[in-house]
Design a protein that fits this description.
Layout lengths: L25 H16 L10 E5 L1 H12 L6 E5 L14 H5 L3 H11 L4 E8 L4 H14 L5 E8 L6 H8 L3 H8 L8
Parallel strand pairs: 1-2, 2-3, 3-4
């Protein structure tokens, strides 16, 4: 599986799952190439009703932003401890494109257009950074459950910013909530 944020683990070399000018086309890879690969190799639904993202941290950001950017293709996301705004250093000098990949801007535009409906499940641990918790709560307060943007939050008691926190917590509600929003599989004829 290609790495969403390749580069040294010093937090200055990542791509926000976006097509940043002059950088690898990570947004195209996520929004076009991966779904095309799935459609070519598996039975999939033709409509967006069977398509969702799941990710944590920067992967949660990428899923959140992609669902809001392409609501005609993707219906839902389960974002655990996501970033809320694009913050890669590679955006420097590309403010217009950065805003085109900003979930806050995208949610506002979707609300103004009145749809289509998207379903955003968030998870965050109570022991994560205050800035992460505040950003998620702020996003939900500003855009959540307004018009076509439907949100839910799973607050994980004593949870931290890691898979040990997120994976077990998915079974306490978020996976069922997302599943209820999507069309289920049907047997082939």
């Amino acid at each position: 599986m290609p790495v969403l944020n390749p580069g040294p683990d010093d937090h200055d070399h990542y791509w926000d799952g976006s097509d940043i000018p002059g950088q690898p086309k990570m947004g195209t890879w996520l929004a076009d190439d991966i779904p095309d690969l799935m459609k070519q190799n598996f039975r999939t639904l033709k409509s967006r009703d069977g398509w969702a993202f799941m990710g944590s941290s920067s992967g949660g950001f990428a899923g959140l932003k992609t669902v809001l950017q392409y609501p005609d293709r993707f219906k839902a996301v389960l974002a655990s401890g996501p970033d809320i705004v694009p913050d890669s250093p590679f955006w420097k000098g590309h403010e217009k494109e950065q805003q085109e990949n900003n979930p806050q801007v995208l949610a506002s535009q979707l609300i103004a257009r009145k749809g289509p409906d998207v379903y955003l499940a968030f998870q965050v641990g109570t022991k994560e950074s205050r800035s992460t918790i505040n950003a998620i709560n702020g996003f939900i307060a500003t855009y959540g459950n307004k018009g076509p943007v439907h949100t839910t939050l799973n607050l994980i008691h004593d949870g931290r910013h890691n898979a040990y926190t997120y994976v077990p917590a998915m079974g306490t509600g978020p996976m069922q909530w997302i599943s209820n929003q999507l069309e289920g599989p049907t047997p082939s004829s």
